[in-house]
Arginine biosynthesis bifunctional protein ArgJ
Amino acid sequence: MTVTAPRGFRAAGVAAGLKSSGGKDVALVVNDGPSAVAAAVFTTNRVVAAPVVWSRTAVGDGIARAVVLNSGGANACTGPEGFLDTHRTAEHVGELLGVSAGDVVVCSTGLIGERLDMPALTAGVTAAAAALSADGGPDAAEAIMTTDTVAKTVHVEGEGWSVGGMAKGAGMLAPALATMLCVLTTDAELDTEQADAALREATRLTFDRVDSDGAMSTNDTVVLLASGASGVRPDPQRFQDALTEAARQLARALVADAEGASHDVAVTVTGATSETAALAVARAITRSNLVKTAIFGNDPNWGRIIASAGTVPEDVAPYDPLALDVTVNGVQVCRAGGVGDDRSLVDLAGSREVHIEVALHAGDAPPVTVWTNDLTHDYVHENSAYST
Amino acid sequence: MTVTAPRGFRAAGVAAGLKSSGGKDVALVVNDGPSAVAAAVFTTNRVVAAPVVWSRTAVGDGIARAVVLNSGGANACTGPEGFLDTHRTAEHVGELLGVSAGDVVVCSTGLIGERLDMPALTAGVTAAAAALSADGGPDAAEAIMTTDTVAKTVHVEGEGWSVGGMAKGAGMLAPALATMLCVLTTDAELDTEQADAALREATRLTFDRVDSDGAMSTNDTVVLLASGASGVRPDPQRFQDALTEAARQLARALVADAEGASHDVAVTVTGATSETAALAVARAITRSNLVKTAIFGNDPNWGRIIASAGTVPEDVAPYDPLALDVTVNGVQVCRAGGVGDDRSLVDLAGSREVHIEVALHAGDAPPVTVWTNDLTHDYVHENSAYST
């Protein structure tokens, strides 16, 4: 179940020849209303692709009627011509659907620094518009895949309304978004402020806590479209929970499909003085190549874990290094900054999921979990060969 | 030529059985004076090994008469017992040399979280003291090697004085030091303030601008010993230049010997508004796994380079993303944030050294260069197998 699971949406995914594989590469998601409320969050990278520049403005008024997405080219670092390509794509969608180009969000993913094949893309958009249907969600989810090995979709039920979604992304995942495109849909009745606040909170707690290789892409976009077709105005907290749950499932699916990974690693930090402190320590650990290679080697190397924690400045995360406990998959391998239980008790070879818990014993902030992957031969292979 | 090249120093390196290879693993460097001026800089990691805790105090008064170093064990995260081991080692050296234990700097390198084999280490120190000679520098440099493939030594001549040095380190190199031990010696006459200031400036410009994998070790130490045996008080700027040059050569040797690397990568940032801004951009690029895997794949992937630059916040490094130029080994592959010269003109397969220059066109700060390595299959292999 995906973006077309909530009422009021049609979608399509077609092959336009942008991807060398010949697979589907143009997706269209349309909100048939009655409401056209929308919100979006974008990469915090200062180097942004043309579609991000366009879409920030398009969704700036809290209204959008369609999202057009293509794989096979990021349209990033393509200059004024690249921006014109995005603009023309939005206008073409607008004409086909009879809506304003300014209500069309555009997303692109693929290689940086190359112009899109506009004749192919334009024909693809025309074909996608003709193929729009209330069952088109799975095709759309397939069309946005790049190095993804599986399409990522979600559906979370509310009370008379629901949240659907699709995402693409594999590797290059980082806080404040990733090489990641995500469209969330709901038939709940929302106003623009509520949609914006709910989307920001959901991404903060989910996509922003996934950190595959510390990179931030030029194109990352998460869009929420609300059709209001259920006629139900949801309880705000219930809607927030459902939206966050949908985003969480998609974020988890991104980690599970990260390029070349052999483990999904959850780093949980407890006992920090603040959420900010806990996040900083968790991120320092998830970004350590030495921790990530150790996990690949099925080695619960707690020395590297606490040495990574030690790189966080004291004013960011106050704690006593001699108080740190580290638990890996339930075995407390480090106690009070020193040797704990026998590390040979930890079996990493047998589990895809690795749970690292670092107890700071410094305060009573709630636990924070950041997900990442191990650093493997396949990661090096896929990312050194990606553009060739 | 190494730590015993300047007058007034003796050194030794012996095999004590700490390393499973059976190679030399205990080094001793003694300053016979007449001066015993010393300075040191240590890791900025908050999780520090026992020898770092000890040596900070030992050198705190600007005086040291000997440095004892062991490979085969980091003595980190070993609790109060580990600190006692370091203390005992310093006392043993003091007794053998007839100096105060408080004037003995201790350095350890190897695995974290395991106690040292103290009977073996003590016997090794006794043997090293007996073997001390003015020709012992090369043996000492060999004894501090861990995964290093070559011993790293340096000698820079001044006017009637000189600077010698040795270092160990391969991988785990990061700003503000690395899994790296370095002893620098000089027979110039220095006072304690001058020695401290000169060492901090030299490390700031050299070791702190090497970033192999973003890690900071628990044990990193750089020590400077000044014997005054030349009887010459050097011109301060000349001494600074010589010390910085010695440190630069050792830092460059560390990069050249980084674990599993196939390229040495120099990232130079020009046209920043400040040195801080240039450094922040250079570090963001040298820490990007996507840039590092691309270099391994001999791919001058400028999109990943500018996307990494784009992760630096604007208040840290002001620049216009649409003004960025990127040159790789002399070919300007990105111009004004967009496509530049044909990237196929860049031949990375044929050169160990890769020079990336990013022109920000934002200010007139002097260029800053940070060195790193590519991310390779061998890096993953060596770091996933290190503790097994």
